[in-house]
Amino acid sequence: MVKSAVLGFPRIGPNRELKKVTESYWNGKVTVDDLFKVGKELRAQNWKLQKDAGVDIIPSNDFSYYDHVLDLSLLFNVIPDRYTKYQLSPIDTLFAMGRGLQRKATETEKAVDVTALEMVKWFDSNYHYVRPTFSHSTQFKLNGQKPVDEFLEAKELGIQTRPVLVGPVSFLYLGKADKDSLDLEPLSLLEKLLPLYVEILQKLAAAGATEVQLDEPTLVLDLPKEVQAAVKTAYTFLGNQAGLPKITLATYFGTVVPNLDALKELPIAGFHFDFIRAAEQFDDVASIIGANQTLSVGIVDGRNIWKNDFAKSSEFVQKAISKLGAERVIVATSSSLLHTPVDLNNENKLNAELKNYFSFATQKLEEVVVIAKNVSGQDVSAALEANAKSVAAKASSTFINDPAVQQRVASIDKKMSTRAAPFGERLAEQEKAFNLPLFPTTTIGSFPQTKDIRINRNKFTKGTISAEEYEQFINSEIEKVIRFQEEIDLDVLVHGEPERNDMVQYFGEQLKGYAFTTNGWVQSYGSRYVRPPIIVGDLSRPKAMSVKESVYAQSLTKKLVKGMLTGPITCLRWSFPRVDVDQKTQALQLALALRDEVNDLEAAGIRVIQVDEPAIREGLPLRAGAERSDYQQWAAEAFRVATSGVANKTQIHSHFCYSDLDPNHIKALDADVVSIEFSKKDDANYIAEFKDYPNHIGLGLFDIHSPRVPSKEEFITKIETILKTYPAEKFWVNPDCGLKTRGWEETRLSLTNMVNAAKYFREQYKK
Ligand SMILES: [Zn+2]
């Protein structure tokens, strides 16, 4: 009998219960007991759900109040001194490390002021983890026993679980040295860390756990030899300890083949591999499974929302069975289900046909169970039949297939993805037409999204104000933003984006081929959840999406107004993509829709158009090699298809955040002007990387995540540093990113200082 397994379940609750209670706790509206009560209820609910679905191997310790990697830092006492010195409770220490804490002194409590630890993207997903931060003073010891407590909690409910922890090598490798210990190599701490894994696993065994799942997702990265060696060391050590639960080493999000040597002959119970993202690794990984080891086949997608194809998956699992025998094969989700929305049954506005093609975390439980039963020879014919019907219906769905779009993508040629003239010629025409000063100033697009804006948008969504009333409101907001920018004397203005809820959703809602959920939330970090739109079919633009607002803004001023669009790669990356066509095709479809929009903006008199690609970096495949260069090539092509339909004198801008950009990749986009997040980066090396960038560039001059107002002198110093390396005639002056989350007062002060600094340099360069 083949078993079914789930690697992790969303912790947020079907109705975002976790967000509501944690935020209430942070605001002092509920007590810590209220918080823990909701946590306990959510865990119980998740376990029961999985048990009732018939899942054999159910995870525990996948729950977290903030982030499961941060939980582990707390568990192993990897807590920098700046947090321990306040002697907060464990949960408050966890939150302080995750999100910082600033608290005035009261009669009972001391004042606290500490910033958060660094947060980074979890591989190529949109989840973010808090980086384990080690220093020479880190004292490894067990701090509580969360994994044991949660295991016992499930046991009390009569549910045997498999506790899951991030493994020792990934925990260290994904971490970093604290600023007081920069010479420390986290991996060198392995020897000190391993005994703690032994200790917690012993406690789990004593509590009755027979198996554990240790996640080592770093194994899908390009690993230096010493990291591969560390994997071998760690699991040889753990596997040889007597009396521990059986260890399954789990990897996901890619292929482990280049690191396979590290996994050979490890004395552990089994492995889990992701065959959704890397089906091609099957023969290689199957060849290292030892005589008594199990293979957990990740075949139900933990990262996307499409229904599984039971026939295809069963066939795949069968391959494993014929090699290893049914007893040694497990059918599993490809990764934790953390990255999918909780329950499709919460969607009552979705089109019924589309709904029939989707599967959220709750539905995926049934999927692993059905596939496991099917390959075990049990009768699941009703489920198979319904599934086959849905798969067939999807293949011929008119929602999904639009021959006109497919034809248009096929007809993309070199000319469509190349501007009419090279940058130098375009620039000459633009300079003549625009007459901008040296050090032109601009912003990245959005201005403060005030409460008033949210209230009016809600009223419009609910139908309590009419479309005309809403448009009037938006226009008045646009006018406010234009007057403000004129007043502080910016050079290239924006309309401020008061009409946009989100930079992808706003366009997605206007494109054919997108679907939206009402409750499809996925945790991005802490209590921030996102609701990714779903690309369901061939994408096209029925009508103009942003022209009205831009044209209105331009009608109010003699200065240039930038049209603002979200680029094809960002639309793709921040959505659930299709799996029936490749991502390049989806990017090109988006590019064509945006091309029409760019051309319409130009035709309506907008002479500067910015196409943002903040997500272009995160789309980069995890490993170096052909796949990565391929991505860079088609991502750039998609951008150029979107932006190459305009005349030479129309200026194309683009914007990127999350730095660490590859200047060559940016160069391939051939935008006339790019702006990049830079304020936290200002080291000479990073500037030098962009020195030879041929087109114009704005290096972000202030951090928009902070309410802090930089002085004019600070701007001057910063610009001076940049100008030591970077030529003045190519330099634009702008903030790091959009100002949507900022208040008006700090926006006014910061931008005024920034504009005055630009004027200072204009004077200097006149001389
Ligand atoms: Zn940005």
UniProtKB/TrEMBL annotation:
GO biological process, alphabetically ordered: L-methionine biosynthetic process from L-homoserine via O-acetyl-L-homoserine; methylation
Cofactor(s) required for function per UniProt: Zn(2+)
Pfam families per UniProt: Meth_synt_1, Meth_synt_2
Signal peptide positions on this chain: none
Binding site for L-homocysteine: 444-446, 612
Domain called Cobalamin-independent methionine synthase MetE C-terminal/archaeal: residue spans: 439-759
Binding site for Zn(2+): 655, 657, 677, 737
UniProt entry keywords in alphabetical sequence: Amino-acid biosynthesis, Metal-binding, Methionine biosynthesis, Methyltransferase, Transferase, Zinc
Gene Ontology MF annotations: 5-methyltetrahydropteroyltriglutamate-homocysteine S-methyltransferase activity; zinc ion binding
Positions with a binding annotation for 5-methyltetrahydropteroyltri-L-glutamate: 19, 126, 574
Record CDD domains: CIMS_C_terminal_like, CIMS_N_terminal_like
Domain of life: Eukaryota
Residues at which L-methionine binds: 444-446, 497, 612
SUPFAM superfamilies assigned to the protein according to its UniProt record, in alphabetical order: UROD/MetE-like (SSF51726)
Catalytic site positions: 705 (proton donor)
Enzyme Commission number(s) from the entry: 2.1.1.14
Family annotation (PANTHER family): 5-METHYLTETRAHYDROPTEROYLTRIGLUTAMATE--HOMOCYSTEINE METHYLTRANSFERASE
Similarity comment: family membership: Belongs to the vitamin-B12 independent methionine synthase family.
Protein name, UniProt field: 5-methyltetrahydropteroyltriglutamate--homocysteine S-methyltransferase
Species classification: Eukaryota, Fungi, Dikarya, Ascomycota, Saccharomycotina
